[in-house]
Design brief:
alpha+beta
Length: about 90
């Protein structure tokens, strides 16, 4: 695979099953990502809402500067082929 062109960030908690699924999918695809853990943040909903209006859960995934949503959106992008194109150009 070519060099990764877009940074990927996952806002997550340690035990969230969808967070684990998102990380596993990115690992499987050999996509590097940064994790921002919100376990100790008592107001993590306001953190995710401030990044993507209306999004109050984790994971919250960003590709480049664009928040794409959670695991469902990540998996849909992968299924359609958009994920690899967006990250690797």
């Amino acid at each position: 695979m070519s060099a990764q062109k877009a940074e990927v960030i996952i806002y997550r908690t340690q035990r969230c099953p969808y967070c684990l699924d998102a990380a596993a999918l990115l690992d499987e695809l050999e996509i590097r990502y940064q994790e921002i853990h919100l376990d100790d943040n008592p107001d993590r909903r306001s953190v995710t809402r401030s990044i993507l209006e209306g999004h109050e859960t984790v994971p919250l995934i960003l590709i480049g500067d664009e928040p794409i949503g959670g695991f469902t959106e990540l998996a849909a992008m992968h299924s359609s082929g958009q994920l690899i194109r967006r990250i690797f150009g």
